[in-house]
């Protein structure tokens, strides 16, 4: 995920760096592209918070532990880099420092949550072990980070959607919703794992049912649209990608619905969760990136 995202943004940075004289219309389009990247990147932070919690849970129950250690380290590094880039800018991503006072404040609040969450993840990386009490703390702290990061993303979508002529509000909100799907996939996987680990099973069964339903309903809204709220897939390529996501989601969805019902979790279902869910995340991440390129199309 990191490699593809950085590749796309590095190309955008190159294109911007080659512009010397630009018209006001071009300036607006560049600003809209940067806004889309901000929404995408901030939305990815939500995903990373839950992906790290999911990885810690999988390590705790001894499922795919070696790979999950690598996930923890990569996601830790990516979250740290992205938080600094969103707040202070990054030349390699053609991203300026955030100038909006409200958005800076929202990112700082999430940053305080990250300061509490990060040591728990670093401890898991260092030891290679996650006890059940440690896992419970990781989940609690990660959810607090998610909550405040979600506020920052929503604020970003609204601020840029209302202030830029080439970034219609409905498009910025749609990018936010598409980005949220990545988070829902990982949150559902984490809740499945917490049930498997025996941590608050009844509460996590309820949470898993809700998260699974939200992913399913939102995905359909992204494909077909919802008047005044969600933009329908703005081109055939995005529609095809979202339909690919829908097909890949069927396996994990069935597993999650089964676990949410209180049924016994099987090794086959565990394998579906670890393998197929990664494909859902990869495809959804591709879809979110494609929305950035849809900005000029929405203008026509």
Entry keywords:
single chain, about 300 residues, mainly alpha, globular, disordered C terminus
Q: Would you write up a description of this structure?
A:
There is one protein chain. The protein has one domain (8-295). The protein has ten helices and no strands. It has helices at residues 2-17, 24-60, 65-88, 101-127, 132-163, 169-197, 201-224, 236-260, 267-293, 295-299. It is globular, with a radius of gyration of 19 Å. It starts with a helix and ends with a helix.
The value of Rg in angstroms is: 19 Å
Secondary-structure-based class equals mainly alpha
Count the helices. How many? 10
- How many domains? 1
Number of β-strand runs: 0
Which ranges are low-confidence, i.e. pLDDT below 50, for 5 or more consecutive residues? 1-27, 296-300
How would a crystallographer describe the biggest sheet? none
Mean pLDDT: 86
Quick take:
The chain is mainly alpha-helical and 300 residues long.
Mind sketching the topology for me?
Layout: H1 2-17, H2 24-60, H3 65-88, H4 101-127, H5 132-163, H6 169-197, H7 201-224, H8 236-260, H9 267-293, H10 295-299
Helix pairs in contact: 2-3, 2-5, 2-6, 2-9, 3-4, 4-5, 5-6, 6-7, 6-9, 7-8, 8-9
């Amino acid at each position: 995920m990191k490699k593809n995202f950085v590749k796309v943004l590095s190309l955008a940075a190159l294109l911007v760096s080659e512009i010397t004289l630009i018209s006001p219309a071009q300036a607006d389009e560049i600003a809209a592209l940067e806004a889309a990247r901000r929404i995408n990147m901030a939305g990815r932070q939500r995903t990373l918070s839950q992906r790290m919690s999911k990885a810690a849970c999988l390590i705790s129950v001894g499922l795919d532990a070696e790979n999950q250690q690598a996930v923890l380290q990569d996601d830790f590094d990516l979250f740290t880099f992205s938080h600094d880039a969103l707040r202070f800018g990054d030349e390699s991503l053609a991203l300026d420092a955030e100038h909006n006072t409200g958005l800076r404040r929202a990112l700082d609040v999430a940053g305080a949550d990250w300061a509490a969450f990060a040591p728990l993840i670093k401890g898991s990386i260092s030891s290679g072990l996650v006890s059940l009490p440690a896992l419970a703390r990781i989940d609690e702290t990660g959810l607090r980070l998610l909550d405040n990061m979600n506020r920052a993303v929503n604020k970003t979508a609204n601020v840029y959607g209302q202030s830029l002529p080439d970034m219609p509000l409905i498009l910025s909100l749609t990018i936010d919703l598409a980005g949220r799907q990545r988070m829902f996939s990982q949150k559902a996987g984490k809740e499945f794992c917490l049930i498997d680990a025996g941590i608050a099973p009844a509460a996590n069964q309820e949470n898993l049912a809700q998260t699974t339903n939200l992913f399913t309903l939102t995905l359909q809204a992204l494909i077909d649209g919802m008047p005044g709220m969600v933009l329908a897939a703005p081109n055939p390529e995005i529609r095809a990608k979202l339909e690919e996501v829908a097909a890949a989601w069927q396996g994990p969805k069935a597993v999650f619905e089964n676990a949410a019902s209180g049924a016994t979790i099987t090794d086959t279902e565990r394998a579906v969760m670890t393998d197929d869910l990664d494909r859902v995340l990869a495809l959804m991440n591709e879809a979110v990136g494609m929305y950035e390129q849809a900005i000029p199309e929405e203008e026509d």
